[in-house]
Amino acid sequence: LVLPWANSQRGVCADSYFASVTSAEEMMQIGLRFIGVVKTATKKYPMGYLTRVELNEGRGQRVGVVLKNRNRSTMLAYVWMDRDRRYFISTAESLAEGKPYSRIRWRQQELPEQLFGEEDNEDPVRQELTVSQPKCLETYYDTCAAIDQHNRHRQDNLRIERKLETRNWDKRVATSTFGMYCVDTWLMYRGCTTDSLHPTPKLNQQEFYSTLAEELIDNNLQQVRTRKRAQRNNEERVIASALIVTDFINLAPQLRATSQKKKNSAGKITKHCSQGRCKVCYKGRPTTICSA
């Protein structure tokens, strides 16, 4: 995903899906800087120390540790206190004071001490909450909105992980990466076909994904083929949809034995069949595949 920008010293901001010490090391090897939030991928991360360190000053306090190589700082792992602890890994920026962030939150007003027990609590009011953050976090949170928008396009609109459920880690990574490519293609199409005079593209997101899928069906590494799409009216679309539904109804689901085999902890293929799960016609962990 980032190889076109290798050796450019640009920064990569990642959420917990990609962020880890290994990811930071890989980015350094290809000449890119990295900032990410660590949640579950804690291998080689000093999570034990950072979870025990005391943060008595409340919101805005941070404590970090630095990895040095030949007396040169190469990686920074730190914890930052907001409402709860948040852990980060970075090869860019530092813990120097950055621009504080402010949020509007509901807060309960405290009564004067002499009125305790005489009056009810006052109604909550909206107040501006200002929290200090390091320069590293300022850079990361400036890009969080783009990450959330990209995840929303992939999870709520494309939904390829829900349509192709799997329990194999390699397939899960492959489908998620493919979904990211599809969303990037949609964002590029939208950016190239819209401007101030034409704020909306000709195809909406679902129509674009359908068109993209039809173009990908016949493509391979040796040659590229494109299908000519004729514009159909509403009546033709209704007839085509009815035919598709009829074909699916006439096709009875069947159970077929899977050809995939399990892998052991060392990654070697065993003689046991891979188990899956069908959400429609079978519950459990069968070694068969539903043809539907």
UniProtKB/TrEMBL annotation:
InterPro entries: PGBD (IPR029526)
Organism: Proboscia inermis
Residues in coiled coil: none
UniProt cross-references to Pfam families, sorted A to Z: DDE_Tnp_1_7
Domain of life from the UniProt record: Eukaryota
Protein's recorded name: PiggyBac transposable element-derived protein domain-containing protein
Domain PiggyBac transposable element-derived protein: 2-176
